[in-house]
Design brief:
574 residues; alpha/beta; Rossmann fold; six-stranded parallel sheet; 19 helices; 35% helix; globular; TPP_enzyme_TPP-bd; Thiamine pyrophosphate-binding protein; thiamine pyrophosphate; THDP-binding; Thiamin_PyroP_enz_cen_dom
């Protein structure tokens, strides 16, 4: 006979389901109903109470990306939901498994102009895989299980569960144990897998493009083994970083926007791209041959909604890891031909020299009172253990760390970056979720611009309360450097408008008030000691902030300036 379980309240049922999910941290800013916190008092689940709902969703998204299991965020209703929408947009774009639970107006008050009443389902549906409202207690168990299943299966993404206020205190009965929540990884169609393998075997000059959809799917370095069998160069998208070892001989850097000479020539010479877990978004294909028919792509994605048909080629639907294993077996007798591997090695050698020259040029051009960003990355590499996870923002100066080999991830390193939506402040907040998802002792470093960090500073009390030890390296050019660069193109230096203005940040006072470490650095000579001291604090369990003065003119490799959404390339081409 099936065992029947009765939970005293809806929130008690939710708390029990969170334990079943293996959730170790919940993020949010609840409304007036504190019942869930009351239930979680009796568990060892960490609860991060944020000052802003958007940051709460960012943190839960960082947790989900790092852990590979659902991040959970709990909020109130009305404006609490609209505040959270930017974070939900980012979770959807990043394919992060997120469960957002919100309060909802009582069923008998809908349509009466009740306090904070909003048609929340209509507001959020465009941003999520699935949204539902639970008006009756007996429907809650099924809704929780469906939410978890949809969040982690297919292309992962956010789901929304709204709890009508009148059922919060009602008992909830379920007729059996909670269903398993591990994602099911579908095998590819054998015919599609074999046809793609034949095309790969016949291809000259192949490249592997590893996207965020391959995250957590590179067990045993299966992707690198396939690359070796094919003699294929390995590129990643920004969101795919951390999936493969960047110290591998065939690793070539980040694709698209972040590829510079001489590696960009490999895309013009390639005969086939094998894209693992990438939607081939604009930033990933930026700078590819203008003629889309010139570069065929075999696309590997979990969900058909991620397919891109603008380029010739084929596709295989299914789990990236299982597809790679299938190809490795089918291509067991394949041996790379031609000089393509040697061409890749030659380009990498030239890239290393060019990177060194670029860093030297930036150092010579740095004005007094500013530190070259390339030196910041080099000092960070020396100061923090190699298994660190870099959590990234997407500003002007912090783009430096996207450019290999100025910043490289070894076999044990990790990375979490914003999606192509790049909401300001995501990286600063997501680092808290990443820290709580990663094993104790693994370093988490957030490299952020001062514009993004200023949006996040109000959460420093949250960071202190959560005990999430993160090293924040803040590159300070006085404001929004990317916008200033675009303004300078239009108005020149004499504009009466400004996005960057040197001024005290106030971070030191906040950090001191909450027992966090803080150092400000204005010369390269100060940097090693400041980072070493900050890392000692973080290793001991305390968040530390190192603010580094940088110059607006210190642009990443390959850039001569900004040009709207994207940088202008050397040679004048955007």
């Amino acid at each position: 006979m099936t065992a029947v379980t009765t939970h005293p309240t809806a929130w008690a049922a939710i708390a029990d389901h969170l334990r079943h999910l293996g959730t170790t941290a919940v993020f949010g800013l609840p409304g007036d109903d504190m019942a869930l916190l009351g239930e979680l008092e009796r568990s060892d689940t960490a609860v991060v109470l944020c000052r802003d709902q958007r940051n709460a969703v960012f943190m839960a998204t960082g947790y989900a990306l790092a852990a590979g299991r659902p991040g959970v965020c709990v909020i109130g209703k009305g404006p609490a939901l609209t505040n959270a929408l930017t974070g939900v947009l980012e979770a959807r774009s990043a394919a992060a498994p997120l469960i957002l639970i919100a309060d909802g107006t009582r069923l008998d008050r809908l349509g009466t102009g009740a306090f904070q009443e909003l048609d929340q389902l209509t507001a959020i549906r465009p941003y999520v895989k699935w949204a539902t409202r639970v008006d009756h207690a007996e429907r809650l168990p099924a809704a929780l299980e469906k939410a978890a299943a949809l969040a982690v299966n297919g292309t992962p993404g956010p789901v929304y569960l709204e709890l009508a206020e009148q059922i919060a205190a009602e008992p909830v009965t379920r007729g059996g144990p909670w269903r398993p929540v591990a994602p099911q990884r579908p095998a590819p169609d054998p015919a599609a897998l074999a046809a793609a393998a034949e095309r790969i075997a016949a291809a000259e000059r192949p490249l592997l493009l590893v996207g965020g959809g391959a995250r957590h799917r590179n067990t045993g370095r299966r992707i690198e083994r396939l690359a070796e069998r094919l003699g294929a160069g390995i590129f990643t998208t920004a969101s795919g970083r951390g999936t493969v070892a960047e110290d591998h001989p065939l690793y070539c850097g980040v694709s698209g926007l972040y590829t510079v000479a001489p590696m960009d020539a490999l895309w013009r010479e390639a005969g086939l791209v094998i894209a693992l877990g990438s939607r081939l978004e604009e930033t990933a294909t930026f700078g590819w041959p203008d003629d889309a028919t010139q570069l065929p792509v075999i696309q590997v994605v979990l969900g058909e909604e991620s397919l891109v048909m603008e380029r010739p080629g084929s596709y295989v639907l299914g789990d990236a890891g299982r597809i790679v294993d299938g190809w490795t077996e089918l291509l067991a007798d394949h041996r790379p031909g031609g000089d393509w591997p040697e061409r890749i090695r030659t380009a990498k050698t030239a890239l290393a020299q060019r990177a060194a020259d670029r860093a030297e040029e930036a150092a010579k051009a740095a004005p007094e009172g500013a530190v070259p960003v390339a030196r910041v990355l080099a000092a960070l590499d020396r100061a923090v253990p190699a298994d660190r996870v870099l959590v990234q923002e997407n500003g002007l100066q912090d783009m430096w760390s996207y450019f290999f080999p100025h910043y490289a991830l070894g076999a044990g390193g990790g990375s979490v970056v914003p999606s192509e939506q790049t909401p300001l402040g995501f990286g600063a907040a997501a680092a808290v979720g990443v820290r709580l998802a990663e094993p104790a002792g693994r370093p988490v470093v957030a490299v952020v611009g001062d514009g993004a960090f200023n949006l996040f500073r109000g959460e420093l009390p949250t960071v202190a309360d959560a005990g999430a030890a993160v090293l924040y390296v803040v590159l300070d050019n006085g404001g929004y450097g990317w916008l200033q660069s675009n303004l300078d193109r239009v108005s020149g230096p004499a504009s009466r408008f400004a996005f960057t203005t040197p001024r005290p940040t106030g971070t030191e006072g906040l950090a001191d008030a909450y027992g966090l470490g803080h150092r400000r650095v204005t010369t390269a000579d100060e940097l090693p000691a400041a980072l070493a001291d900050a890392w000692r604090r973080v290793a001991a369990g305390t968040t530390a902030v190192v603010e580094v003065a940088v110059a607006l003119t210190d642009t990443p490799p390959g850039m001569t300036g900004s040009a709207g959404d994207f940088p202008e390339r050397e040679g004048g081409e955007p």
